[in-house]
Amino acid sequence: MISAEFEKSKEFTIVEIIEYVPNSVVIKTIIKKTTGNVSAISFDSGEKLTDRMSPFDNFIQIIDGRAEIVIDETSRQLETGQSIIIPAHSFNTIKANVRFKMISTIIKSGYDEVS
């Protein structure tokens, strides 16, 4: 059986599980459930994910390099170790002015429970 997730109870170093690929954005799924997912993503310099909007909050943590995150036309520069939450229903662009790696965590459940 092929699994979309990493092996449970086995240690790994997150920054080492994903490689930089020239002229590419690489996405590696760590956990994928109907209630949300966690992905490691690498961006080569000059690459970007543009004008996206999700119905869910997205927690972004930079694990290598430096990223430009644009949320509703406001640009922020994040460096290794820094994080940001992209709010649900916000237009966003993730840009690599230099190459970087990040973790993206989306939780799809519980929105009806929070006021």
Q: Would you spell out the secondary-structure blueprint of this structure?
A:
Layout (H helix, E strand, L loop, with lengths): L24 E9 L2 E8 L4 E5 L5 E14 L2 E6 L3 E4 L5 E4 L4 E8 L8
Antiparallel strand pairs: 1-2, 2-8, 3-7, 4-5, 4-6, 4-7, 4-8
Give the helix/strand class: mainly beta
What is the alpha-carbon Rg in Å? 14 Å
- Taking pLDDT < 50 over at least 5 consecutive residues as the criterion, the unreliable ranges are none
How would a crystallographer describe the biggest sheet? Answer: 8 strands, antiparallel
User: How many alpha or pi helices?
Assistant: 0
Written as H for each helix and E for each strand, in order along the chain, the element string is EEEEEEEE
Strand content: over 45%
Strands, total number: 8
Could you estimate the helical fraction of the residues in percent? under 10%
Average pLDDT metric: 91
CA distance, first residue to last residue: 40 Å
What characteristic shape results from the CA principal axes? globular
